[in-house]
Amino acid sequence: MFSxxxxxxxxxxxxFDTMWTIFPWLFGAVVVLIVVILVANxxxxxxxxxxxxxxxxxxxxxxxxxxxxxxxxxLTDRLEELDRLRAAGxxxxxEYAAARSSALNGDGGR
Length: 110
What we know:
The protein is mostly helical. The protein is 68% helix and 0% strand.
């Protein structure tokens, strides 16, 4: 069916035999690569004190709590906290101005 008259060309059966020999090795190599990547990610997550099974949720929760990404509750709370600290005399006027500027610029003001 796939035989060719040219010299050096593969016949149909040899081509498929070769593919059936290469495919399992290629598939196995891909599986091994996926396992190695998963193990590396689990180790990295544990090294940073995260549970590998909940890393995505942990990162999302930290993102939301930081006030980044559309929610200004974190910024509003920080500005109110700075106002309370200034009113109580816990921070000076220059410290208040610097912390407020930092909070408004996205540095968290801490």
